[in-house]
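Query structure, 372 tokens:
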């Protein structure tokens, strides 16, 4: 059975997260988006985890996977996936004494390294891997040059690419040759331009959290889908104040200070991935489908200030009413059928599928954009 999965989101217990991130609304959002499997987000927060328990079985048939994120003593973020909420209760008990924020924070900070966190996750039967691994803040490759440098002798079960990277960025890194890649939304709001903005297609034997973890463990990932990496806000090496972009050579020459305004120049994901590959050859990976949220496409084609204008929302609803869900519109519905509703949106989706979109790369903390 093929399912579409988003295995990393957040809750209102995390910083800068919408108060509308609630289980019932998230399940409705999954139906609209076309997501069949959803991570709970922030499962180490006991009240949030308890709030999910009535929704583990739901009329929409969405498979709910207990999922959390944790920050270690080096500021590296790790995603943890479990089969059962009780495993997060057990993990929280194991980590007591290393953290003061289990109750107050959705993504708690613990005074442990990656190896200790991975071992603790494995002790309770959970899976673990680096979150948004290539992001130049709070990520494994921001602070370490290899998986063993971060995790010691512990095994990682997957690596989350993050919004600024696609599979090609990790395919040539020897450390990762046998590690499955995940693409998740890391959503902070339940709306369709955020929820499921990156997703995975997994082949599972049974529609349960246990079946999902078995698929991840076995690398049964049929497809990754997500942003063009150029859309990510850290894709190119750039100033974090004015967003001027630099070649790696120029950034080094300027000693990582922007000559225009003195801001810090942050190394981009594209340059970092090339460094980590050390000239090694790329290993084959499942297909990576580049997608842009339908709401963002509609906003661009209608030239509005926001995807939340009445005009954009009405058109979005028409697409969903006609074709069932957003992911179907983006990747499955014939362009000719889309054209009957909106020719410009059809042109955009055709360009997206053919990868003829014109990209304006992001960097320094500013998202990239696209045009046709």
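Result returned for the query:
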């Amino acid at each position: 059975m093929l399912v579409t999965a988003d295995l990393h989101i957040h809750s209102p217990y995390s910083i800068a997260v919408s108060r509308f991130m609630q289980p019932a609304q998230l399940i409705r959002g999954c139906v609209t988006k076309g997501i069949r499997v959803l991570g709970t987000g922030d499962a180490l927060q006991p009240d949030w985890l308890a709030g999910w328990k009535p929704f583990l079985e739901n009329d929409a048939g969405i498979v709910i996977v207990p999922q959390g994120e944790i920050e270690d003593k080096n500021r590296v973020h790790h995603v943890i996936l479990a089969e059962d909420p009780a495993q997060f209760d057990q993990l929280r008990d194991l980590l007591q004494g290393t953290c003061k924020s289990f109750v107050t924070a959705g993504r708690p900070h613990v005074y442990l390294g990656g190896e200790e966190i991975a071992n603790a996750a494995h002790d309770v039967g959970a899976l673990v891997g680096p979150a948004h691994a290539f992001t130049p803040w709070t990520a494994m490759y921001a602070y370490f040059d290899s998986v063993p440098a971060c995790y010691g002798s512990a095994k990682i079960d997957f690596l989350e690419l993050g919004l600024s990277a696609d599979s090609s960025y990790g395919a040539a890194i020897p450390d990762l040759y046998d590690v499955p890649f995940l693409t998740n939304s890391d959503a902070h709001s339940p709306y369709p331009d955020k929820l499921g903005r990156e997703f995975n297609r997994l082949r599972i034997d049974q529609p349960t959290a246990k079946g999902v973890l078995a698929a991840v463990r076995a690398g049964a990932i049929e497809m990754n889908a997500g942003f063009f990496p150029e859309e990510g806000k850290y894709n190119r090496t750039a100033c974090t104040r004015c967003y001027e972009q630099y070649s790696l050579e120029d950034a080094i020459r300027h000693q990582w200070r922007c000559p225009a305004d003195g801001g810090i120049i942050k190394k981009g994901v594209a340059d970092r991935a090339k460094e980590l590959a050390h000239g090694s050859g790329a290993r084959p990976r499942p297909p990576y489908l580049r997608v842009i949220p339908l709401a963002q496409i509609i906003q661009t084609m209608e030239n509005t200030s926001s995807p939340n204008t009445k005009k954009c929302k009405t058109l979005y609803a028409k697409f969903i009413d006609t074709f069932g869900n957003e992911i179907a519109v983006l990747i499955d519905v014939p362009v000719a059928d889309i054209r009957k509703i909106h020719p410009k949106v059809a042109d955009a989706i055709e360009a997206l599928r053919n990868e003829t979109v014109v990209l304006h790369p992001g960097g320094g903390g500013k998202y990239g954009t696209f045009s046709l």
